[in-house]
């Protein structure tokens, strides 16, 4: 592999081509056609407001420099401004105005409140004040495939992995049709999956062992795992907060067994052995959709939905 992963190219298409990541894996799970369109540069996700607000929040805890840089680059999305006349036009001179900041847009005002919530919470502040590295990436192998991951914070001497998470409501559950039960945001956003991947990559780096060795030890109950913490703040008007520890050996094994099964198909598609399938409903699929037939009304019900079709938008 001639590609060398750095902080600068971490989020590039080349990085996605050479490494799997948790979010790329999740995109393949949602829509193979979209995942391949992104890999081939035929599709880029529009940055949504929630994404910008999330980055605003994250950059604050990364460093003051990172937060300033983010605010500068996204100035017009964050700040409300007005033009103020400094000097009226005269016979010889044009009018001089300057831009004055009058405040922040509501979602960023809310993000400031969430930041404040974290800062004023003693237990959370202890995590923030602990030495360690912010936005640290690591690479490793999972079932023979190279993966990359980036930790919001890594405290090496304690082996703490910290992830900042903004969530609509911490205690809200939703129905999972696959599991047939209500699950929390930790399950519905795949956080146990993420914790399992991050932990196995961290162990390979920490102990200098292969994935197979680490996985065997995990199954035998002999692998000392890092601690994975979610520092959660809710997006409610009065923000809620919790620190959630995700470590659970059996759950990690379950997640990894699931990855093992899905990786075979993902790698077939990624390497071009099999054509990607369209989910039919995501933004990519909608934008490339071509109608080929008239459908009966009942096809809209999930139990009658047709098989996913191969992507035709090459
Ligand atoms: Zn799709």
Explain how this protein is built.
The chain is 42% helix and 22% strand. The mean pLDDT is 94. The protein has a domain at 121-262: Lambda Exonuclease, Chain A, CATH 3.90.320.10. With 314 residues, it is of the alpha+beta class. A hairpin with a 2-residue loop joins strand 3 (133-142) and strand 4 (145-155). Zinc ion binds at residues 31, 33-34, 278-279, 282, 284-285. The site of zinc ion has 8 residues, from helix 3 and helix 13.
In short:
With 314 residues, this protein is of the alpha+beta class. It is 42% helix and 22% strand. The chain has helices at residues 13-18, 22-30, 32-39, 49-62, 64-73, 75-78, 106-119, 122-129, 185-188, 191-207, 211-219, 249-270, 283-288; strands at 79-87, 96-104, 133-142, 145-155, 160-167, 173-176, 181-184, 227-234, 241-245.
Which helices and strands occur, and which strands form pairs?
Layout: H1 13-18, H2 22-30, H3 32-39, H4 49-62, H5 64-73, H6 75-78, E1 79-87, E2 96-104, H7 106-119, H8 122-129, E3 133-142, E4 145-155, E5 160-167, E6 173-176, E7 181-184, H9 185-188, H10 191-207, H11 211-219, E8 227-234, E9 241-245, H12 249-270, H13 283-288
Parallel strand pairs: 5-8
Antiparallel strand pairs: 1-2, 3-4, 4-5, 6-7, 8-9
Helix pairs in contact: 2-3, 4-5, 4-7, 10-12
Bound molecules: zinc ion.
């Amino acid at each position: 592999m001639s590609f060398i992963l750095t902080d600068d190219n971490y989020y590039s298409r080349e990085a996605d081509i050479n490494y799997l990541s948790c979010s790329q894996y999740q995109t393949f799970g949602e829509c193979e056609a979209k995942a391949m369109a992104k890999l081939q540069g035929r599709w880029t996700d529009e940055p949504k407001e929630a994404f910008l607000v999330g980055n605003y929040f994250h950059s604050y805890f990364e460093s003051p420099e990172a937060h300033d840089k983010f605010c500068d680059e996204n100035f017009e999305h964050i700040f409300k401004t007005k033009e103020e006349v400094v000097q009226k036009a005269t016979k010889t001179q044009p009018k001089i105005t300057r831009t004055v900041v009058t405040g922040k847009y509501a979602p960023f005002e809310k993000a400031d409140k969430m930041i404040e919530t974290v800062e004023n919470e003693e237990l959370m502040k202890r995590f923030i004040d602990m030495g360690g590295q912010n936005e640290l990436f690591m690479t490793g192998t999972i079932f023979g495939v190279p993966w990359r991951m980036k930790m919001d914070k890594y405290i090496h001497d304690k082996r703490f992995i910290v992830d900042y998470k903004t969530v609509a409501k911490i205690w809200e559950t939703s129905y999972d049709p696959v599991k047939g039960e209500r699950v929390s945001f930790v399950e519905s956003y795949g956080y146990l999956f993420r914790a399992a991947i991050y932990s196995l990559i961290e162990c390979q780096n920490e102990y200098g062992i292969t994935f197979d060795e680490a996985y065997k030890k995990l199954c035998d109950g002999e692998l000392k795992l890092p601690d994975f913490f979610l520092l959660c703040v809710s997006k409610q008007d009065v923000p809620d907060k919790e620190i959630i520890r995700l470590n659970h050996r059996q759950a990690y094994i379950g997640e990894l067994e699931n990855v093992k099964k899905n990786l075979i198909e993902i790698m077939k598609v990624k390497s071009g052995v099999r054509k990607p399938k369209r989910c039919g409903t995501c933004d990519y699929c909608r934008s490339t959709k071509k109608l080929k037939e008239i459908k009966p009304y009942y096809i809209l019900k999930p139990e009658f939905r047709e098989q996913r079709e191969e992507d035709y938008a090459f």
